[in-house]
Write a structure and sequence with these properties.
Blueprint lengths: L1 H41 L4 H5 L10 H14 L2 H4 L4 E7 L4 E9 L14 E9 L5
Antiparallel strand pairs: 1-2, 2-3
Helix pairs in contact: 1-3
Organism: Nocardioides jishulii
InterPro entries: Tad_N (IPR028087)
Protein name: Putative Flp pilus-assembly TadG-like N-terminal domain-containing protein
């Protein structure tokens, strides 16, 4: 009975440690996804904060937004921090909304029986730039 209780306790510890690792990685990816979405929505133009907003809307093409998101991820070192990181970008140009989806493999600290070998963490960030005059 003691051996069975010890085995159950070890599995519970492994589940808690792995769940904590997954939670922390998702939080980190969410932070990066939020920053990347804001960079994509702004198209990297910080001049809007210093020089003002141009007349009309900021033009957002999917190619420009995707490039701005990729540059942001490289600049913050996301690919080094999360090896195997992939990203997807969805642009709703009419609403001015950019959605960034990040996927990164999770290296579990402890092996839990029955858990898939290659879990993937997914995080999303959305940003919109609206002009109010």
């Amino acid at each position: 009975m003691i051996i069975g209780f010890a085995a159950v306790l070890l599995v519970l510890v492994a589940v808690v440690v792995d769940a904590s690792a997954a939670y922390l990685q998702r939080q980190g990816l969410t932070t990066i996804a939020d920053g990347a979405a804001l960079q994509g929505a702004d198209l990297g133009s910080v001049s809007a904060y210093t020089d003002g907003i141009p007349e009309g809307r900021l033009s957002q093409s999917a190619e420009q937004v995707h490039a701005a998101v990729g540059e942001h991820l490289a600049a913050v070192g996301a690919y080094d921090t999360y090896p195997g990181l992939t990203h997807g970008v969805d642009v709703d140009a009419a609403a001015g909304v950019v959605t960034v989806t990040l996927r990164a493999p999770l290296d579990l600290p402890l092996a839990v029986p029955g858990v898939e070998d290659d879990p993937v963490i997914v995080a999303r960030g959305r940003a919109a730039v609206t002009v109010q005059r």
